[in-house]
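Supplementary Note 3. Input sequence used for the single-chain structure prediction.
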Amino acid sequence: MQIEQILMKLCSADAVAGDEGEIRNITREFMKPLADEVMTDGIGSLVFHMHSTNENPVKILFCAHMDEVGFLVRHISPIGMVYAHPVGNPLAKSQDMQQVRITTASGKKIRGVMNTTRDMTGQVEDVYVDLGVDSEEAVRSLGVSEGDMICWATEPHKLSEGVVSGKAMDDRAGITALAQAMQSIRAMGTLTNDLYFAVTSSEEVGTRGGKLCCELVQPDLVVAVDVANHSELDRGFKNHRHLGAGLMLELYDKTMSPNRALLNWVRNNLEAVDVPYQSDMFGGGGTDAGLAHMVGTGCLALVLGIPIRYCHSSISLASIADIKATARAVTSIATRLAVRDIASFTDFIHR
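The predicted structure, written as discrete structure tokens, is reproduced below.
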């Protein structure tokens, strides 16, 4: 399956934190045949393990999260309006007049229109979904109940050459990059390093799955593959998230400041294999690496980002070239990092 098809299939599925079964099924389809072993944490993350043939391999954990921002059914009113509670941080302007679908306990998809009420300052007060019925009884007869998942019903499309639109690019773009990297690595045959590719649960509500997968694997290095928003009207020198200009090598965020020796090695490695990248920092927010790198006595951590436009909204844009560049970066790190490199990064007593 082509990379565009993988991305579009992932973006067509619905998954908020704790209700990620649709994405688990798709990632098993793509990634399990490439792995030697599949592991799981206690909240539903999957880890696809590719065994090393080396007696003393580097253990590297790559993470991309399954969950998207979305909503849960909170109340059902007597006039048949379904009130929603946000999960994660969905963009406020993507809560007005949006087509959505509710996934019932039986898995049935119920379509509706999302809208909001706002206060005098324009802040959202209530988010509700109109299913086209006029009573609570009619809503419940459709199988809808409190706690059901609500996601935007945006269908993915290919736009201009090499650009795909769709919901949940955060972080289906990252999962796509990991799937592509696994294909490339498996084609190489013998593996020097012990590689773990995790699709993590509950990142949008507290970066939980990355931490648990790190506890499970106990890696030498954890690499979060995530996305960041590219301001669509800014093409200036302060924007390090241009679509089509390559992946983002994250130099800092408020939850994790990477080892400088590791960053220098990654820069040199990306340049050696001619992978385009942009040097970026997160002013706010974080990734799975934030909690994961503090497991035990701590481990090395890195964030590779994919620039997207309109993050956490009902529709985002991503560049296939950037996803491919990220996959190439993952492949290069996975196959070129050596035990001696890890030792040099962490020799704090002598360095």
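The chain has two domains: 3-68+167-345, 71-150. The chain has a mean pLDDT of 95.
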